[in-house]
């Protein structure tokens, strides 16, 4: 399938067994294990089989097997497997010579340590044993926690899939997050999907609306490309609340890329890309029910149903509903710590896959969301206007509709050549008020992306080329001011991939012809060098640009007395120029054995330099929110080191440390960006028991986040009682969860968030006088709720 249509595929769908316990793949007669990676491997394996007398051969990258059809009077399985090994591919009978293996194209150099979860099976050759491949009845499956073994006369096949894995084949730094990782925490929506991930920082954006935001490489969420099914998702008017619109139980996998991503996905990615894939793979019909409730009045339900219609068609029904009904006020300031309200979210996906025969594949999706929230002081009545009552209130009503399609075609006889076309339409409407302030907005977005992929001579030289089109229509009203604009952006791009024995180079560029921002040129490059299969160096550099939506992206400051002030700089978007940034990065990945088990250390450094950045100045005055283009320097340095290891069976440890240095030249001089801790620490511990005879087991997971001090906005001109310190205190947050899988169908879990009960006691400045000059609900640097506990139930039918 074309690259634009690629999605994560497990060896066995992870939903088939709780917590990712995969049953070993059972081979059929005349089916043999053969190692390989890509479409070129497939062509080479099948050609070698036919050269040895096979009438037909079909190699599966998913199962790492070849199915043979041959006349035993003319040839044998032994002769065919020997021919495949001579072509360079290890199999269950013969091993390719080192010389032949090393001469394969770089993209075909499979891992000879052979691990199912990366993403192919792990085969350990214990001894040479004669085996003609017809004794499938002699196979036996041995199951243990997270790992399954199959013995085939001297060959042991071991299967497991890591909850989070770093792709060793990608030139960029790409983390694949599986459903197993998401089950380690409450994960009610995308904003809670990174609680056990050290790369993404999650924090509350303000003390009134209770929304969360993500940060990567020391920069705000708006600089990360957030996509769904490789299509633009959380951007524009959805920036503030869009993370709440992707339920955690809908997610099949997440791909997280640090640094500049591929140019084929657009120009907006600066710090990286987070792509979410929805549930859509199932070999048998499966319906799941999830029920969740916490001890402070929040409840939700999810129903997911994935079913094949026939050999080519599958469909997915997704339904989510949540409600927050309790008056939670843990710091006794009369303001709700999180808004009350409801959300209804429904989606339907239809997938067609006939790549083997016709070469066509297609994916269709439609999604509707209605979300209504009320926040502010306890006692506020949303049925009355703000002028009719004394309590301060916030109301946020959002309607969102989107429909999308991705269609691809793989050329007959040319598995390396494909074409794909993606299209999406989004309508987003928000009607909201914050006390006496109103903010309303509508957005119409149409996106189209056409990608052609092929090779130059051989698969060592691949290229992609294509064209894209983006239309954004915005209508916004803030107080009595109306802002309307249309952004029309046709673009073209090309990307070249050079693969050697030990290196991979991906270089791309795109040109976008923005009707308001002018022509923008976006080059990006990623380079990977394998010193050894266990030692990998990556380098990256690239440019990105974006147009700032100053109102939608800064709604966390609307619940305050601050007057918005935009200082025009000759641009065409609110009088401002587009933001431009260069990102540079380097990382080193080292794998080694510890206690006889795999251990990985990753260290990475990224720097981002801005030009014309739209600065959000909170220091000019505590009564103002000022926007203007950067004049001078603005940069973000990010360093992270992470160590993953397994000290003993079923016990996984993840340790990480992060250092951020983020500064900008404001009007008043160079200062640190507020609400960004320089130092952060992270510890995640996960343990599971072995399965019992019914498939049941216990899982235990705990995560500790330590956050260093943060610079706070200047409030020295406020009266003393309404002033904040220059820096916040450091703090730690502990989350934990216990889950019990009773069998393959029923799972129950109990968890706690912020078990240290650290919270910001004065999260709202001058909360007693919300209509006064000094009221400010946007000065949040820590949790605003004490410990919270939850329970949940998963049932699969």
Structural features, described:
The protein is mainly beta and 797 residues long. It folds into 2 domains: 23-160, Alpha-Beta Plaits, CATH 3.30.70.100; 173-796, Maltoporin, Chain A (Beta Barrel), CATH 2.40.170. It contains 4 helices and 42 strands. The strands form 6 sheets. The chain has a 22-stranded antiparallel beta barrel. Strands 8-9-15-16-13-14 form a 6-stranded mixed beta sheet. Strand 40 and strand 41 (746-753) form a beta hairpin. Helix 1 (39-51) crosses helix 2. The relative contact order is 0.11. The model is unreliable at 3-25 and 115-160 (pLDDT under 50).
Topology:
Elements: E1 31-33, H1 39-51, E2 56-60, E3 65-69, H2 77-86, H3 98-102, E4 122-125, E5 140-144, E6 147-152, E7 155-159, E8 164-166, E9 173-178, H4 179-182, E10 201-204, E11 212-216, E12 219-220, E13 224-228, E14 231-232, E15 251-258, E16 272-278, E17 286-294, E18 298-308, E19 313-324, E20 340-354, E21 360-376, E22 393-410, E23 418-434, E24 437-456, E25 458-478, E26 481-499, E27 503-514, E28 518-532, E29 535-546, E30 563-566, E31 579-594, E32 597-611, E33 614-617, E34 624-629, E35 634-648, E36 651-666, E37 669-672, E38 679-688, E39 697-707, E40 731-741, E41 746-753, E42 788-796
Parallel strand pairs: 13-16, 30-34
Antiparallel strand pairs: 1-3, 2-3, 4-7, 5-6, 6-7, 8-9, 9-15, 10-11, 11-12, 13-14, 15-16, 17-18, 17-42, 18-19, 19-20, 20-21, 21-22, 22-23, 23-24, 24-25, 25-26, 26-27, 27-28, 28-29, 29-31, 31-32, 32-35, 33-34, 35-36, 36-37, 36-38, 38-39, 39-40, 40-41, 41-42
Helix pairs in contact: 1-2
GO cellular component, one term: cell outer membrane
Domain TonB-dependent receptor-like beta-barrel: 321-755
Protein name: TonB-dependent receptor
